[in-house]
Give the backbone structure.
Amino acid sequence: MKTRSWIALCSILFTTSIALPVLSAQSGIEPIVLKAKTVYDGTGRTLHDVNIIIRGSVISEVGCEIPTDAIIYDLRGLTVTPGWIDTHSHILWHFNEGRLAGSDEQPLQAILYGVDNAILTLNAGFTTIQSPGSPTDAYLRDAIKRGVIPGPRIRTSLQPLTEKSGTPDQLRALVDKRKQQGADFIKLFASQSIRDGGAQTMTDAQLQAACGEATKVGLRTMVHAHSAAAAKAATLAGCTSVEHGAYVTDDVFRLMAEHGTFYDPNIGLVLQNYIENKAKFLGIGNYNAEGFAFMEKGEAITKETFKRALKIKGLKIDYGTDAVAGAHGRNGEEFIVRVRDGGEDPMAGIVSATSLSAASMGMQDQIGSIAPGMQADIIAMDGDPLKDPTSIRRVVFVMKGGTVFKNVVSNAGGTPNPARR
């Protein structure tokens, strides 16, 4: 980890103004300057005493000078990072009248709950997510992109594919269809749920067909795979990422590292959320007593698997939560558990949630780090996540694409309210 100090180079004008404890959205032609004392840039580096200059939706400079007529946010009492990324979040899942909403729900009501989830997620500091699972995702994705509603940047797989989706040839045709429908990537279920034991379900030939066709047409592939066999088959098929992987063995992890396959462990939120909200899920599908007993055991299993994965040289561990109903807005819990219980180095955890996850989505040249030319996705939290991982629960400033969506008073002494120079 490199540390750079700009104290001797920069003469920073201190600006004071009245903090506004409200959400705000702001954009304009004026340059925006974020004055920061501590910046974790998303690549493992720490920057000290810098000004981050935003023009339009992108970062133009990270340095010293403050442009004339700039709008200034003083974040020097806070810790600044790129916007965090959740590579696995089911943004439309929600509870309705105390139970998990089903397919019989009115589409308009479902999408409005999705808006709620999107705002919660953005306010938590997650400026980009990947949603692997619903055709309706596209409407929410496109509305956020148009600026109609606030929310994180969304990538979606639309409807996932399973072993029941057809023969290898039929799977290739379905991948092409998803591409035409506007999917950003392909989601595959290659194993059972952890509630059912996690055994491989898609054949090797099906995985090879689906992942091979996706690569051919320029789409990434995310594979639900709990068993070592399913993870190995996905890796050899050239799939992009393996999700969950509760029972993956060290030899398969090493194979994944050799092939550059990403691993998304989901150890800190999904099972805990299911257990906390047991009454709201119980009795729906395989959310039964046996399944919950399996998930309770699964907490320890997934943490131990994660600890083993950390020891595999070159394994690319990205950041996803598998957020479902009840979990949106708590996406940072994954980081807390990884660091506190899993033994992950906190800086590695930040890199995982920023630049590494951006790379897993093929967006490393747009998001995930604080550098000139990158999208101005920037957050600030009250506390230092390297010393206190729960700081991610205290995000007080959120900018996405140069627009400020959250801007509240910080107890740490920062003044994230705007002022003109």
